[in-house]
Amino acid sequence: MQAKHLRVVILNQGPLILVKNNTPFGGCYYNILLESSKLYNFTYDLVRPKYKGMVKLPNGTWTGYGGQVFRGEQNLILGNTRTFARNAHFDFPSGLDVSGVKFITALPRKTLDWAAVLYIFQPLTWLCLGLCSFGIFALTYASNYFLSYSNVTTITAKI
């Protein structure tokens, strides 16, 4: 884009494009355009007309700023104009795609809340599991205790 000149339409869009005295001075979209022009060495003219809509007509042409881009009257639209109907005909990069902003977060810590182990089952289920476990333990202990004496044989030796 060396030494090219772009014609840009700006739609009033809150914090994305800030306007004072009818002149854009900041905002995400404006800052991206400004910094890109410095980096890629191009100039631009900003036009801020009143928004009149952007609709595809049955004959395939577009009204409003979309039509101006298709006809080559404008090169770029800065503003939120993305809809499903327009996705097939226009390229809509988000502000984060072109700004280089990256979100970095730390990896989650691997911790275990031991109380969460109790939430696996309802209290009645835990009671049933506890009673069954106690019953199995009691039967195993009792069977070992009583069966160990039933197999004892007495041998008497005569001298």
TrEMBL record:
It is found in: Cell membrane. Its main location: membrane. GO terms for cellular component: plasma membrane. This is Uncharacterized protein. It is a multi-pass membrane protein. Keywords: Cell membrane, Glycoprotein, Membrane, Receptor, Transmembrane, Transmembrane helix. The keyword Transmembrane helix applies. The chain crosses the membrane at residues 116-142. It comes from Allacma fusca.
